[in-house]
Design goal:
Order of helices and strands: HEEHEEHEHEE
Helix content: 25-40%
Number of helices: 4
Mean pLDDT: 80
Shape: elongated
Strand order of the largest sheet: 3-4-2-5
Strand content: 25-35%
Structural class: alpha+beta
Low-confidence stretches: 201-213
Number of strands: 7
Length: 251
């Protein structure tokens, strides 16, 4: 009899425990955001070349072309800021025409048909042009001086964080819009946010540099004359974001 009397108590306790474990009703949505702005700077890739009977002569000729580019870029109309970085340097032998079909990669004699007749030195660069709208003029100037294999590889913005933040805010706003629509359609009242999660889980890396004293103002220089001015600007820079937002529901 004692065991039978305890059974209803245990059943009631188990039912209460199960009721306490039932999670509150929620609505979970995934918001998508997008932010766009024109590029602040453009990137140009090009190659410079120097030729000579000896390798030092080829290098000297290459250095002369590079010096001319460096001296001419600050004279562009509008005086855009430019920053060039070298990405590759090659100094190659040039052999006689009779050596062309002897097999690529095989050791070659330096006499007879395969005698070395000269050297070619090439160096590739990536040029950053700010503002991006001046990239066409910079490209025209580089080709005018002797650059070749020039191509534009897009651009970027100076403040990546601001653009990414704008995309994230747009994603949160989109999540709220969806949740409100679902709540109205379901006949319930939307409650507070319970959880927000970056659905991309992509870390944002921001690099910085030391701030040095500003250089003295440059001396005025006459603008360079472009033989064929170009109009070019890279595509707008776009960043996207996705967030998962869970809202509670109110009775």
């Amino acid at each position: 009899m004692r065991h039978l009397a305890l059974a209803p108590c245990l059943l009631a306790f188990a039912s209460a425990a199960m009721a306490a474990e039932v999670p509150p009703p929620t609505i979970a949505v995934i918001g998508s955001g997008r932010a766009e702005r024109p590029a602040d700077y453009a990137l140009l890739n090009f190659t410079l070349r120097g030729e000579g009977a000896t390798s030092p002569e080829a290098v000297k000729a290459l250095a002369g072309v590079q010096a001319k580019v460096d001296a001419s870029l600050p004279k562009l109309p509008g005086k855009p800021a430019t920053e060039a970085r070298s990405t590759n340097l090659q100094i190659r032998e040039v052999r006689g025409k009779g050596c062309e079909n002897r097999g690529y990669g095989n050791p070659q004699l330096t006499s007879g048909d395969c005698a070395v007749v000269g050297f070619v030195a090439t160096q590739t660069f990536q040029l950053r042009v700010t503002p991006a709208t001046k990239a066409g003029d910079a490209a025209s100037l580089v080709v005018q001086i002797g650059g070749f294999d020039l191509n534009a590889s897009g651009g970027g913005v100076s403040d990546e964080r601001a653009l990414e933040d704008a995309a994230m805010r747009d994603a949160v706003a989109d999540a709220k819009r969806q949740a409100e629509l679902l709540a109205v359609a379901s006949g319930v009242k939307l409650g507070p946010i319970i959880r927000v999660q970056d659905n991309q889980a992509t870390p944002i890396v921001v690099t910085g540099s030391a701030v040095n004293a500003p250089p003295p103002p440059p001396l005025p220089v006459p603008p360079v004359q472009l033989a064929s001015p170009l109009s070019y600007a890279p595509q707008p820079i776009v960043r996207t974001a996705r967030v998962m937002v869970t809202y509670g529901l109110e009775p």
